[in-house]
Amino acid sequence: IHIKKITVDEAADIICDTIKLAHFKTTKKSKEAFEDLLLAARVKVVLLDQAPAAEVYARSGVVQIKTSAPDYQEDKLVKSVERTAKAVPGVKDAKVFVVPVVPFAD
Question: What pTM was estimated for this model as a whole?
């Protein structure tokens, strides 16, 4: 495609025609993957205050959250993050994994 020789409208038409092809159709698997990504994003948003660097993954309503905390805060953080995540619509279960933060020794 010579993108310097077509108009924006022509480019838009090409894109619209392309997404009508069979291999661009939504499948059950692609819809589930999108729903998992959406759920993970929703959980990530509600956890921003508690665990801003958390990594959140979802599959079929089960959410896995990986975050870090000092040992003395781990239990409290796990309970809080689990409770918050489970309150998000669509979350069936939440599993929290904490990587301990180890302070540097002098």
Answer: 0.78
Q: CA 83 → CA 16, 47, 67, distances in Å?
A: 43, 10, 15
Beta strands 55-59 and 62-69: pairing type?
Answer: antiparallel
User: Bridge-partner residues for 7, per DSSP?
Assistant: none
d(CA 83, CA 49): 14
Map residue 3 onto helix, strand or coil.
Answer: coil
**Whole-number Å distance between alpha carbons of 36 and 63:** 9
Q: Which two tokens stand for residue 92?
A: 């069936």
Reported as a single tens digit per residue, the pLDDT across 31-83 is: 999 999 999 999 999 999 999 999 999 999 999 999 999 888 999 999 999 99
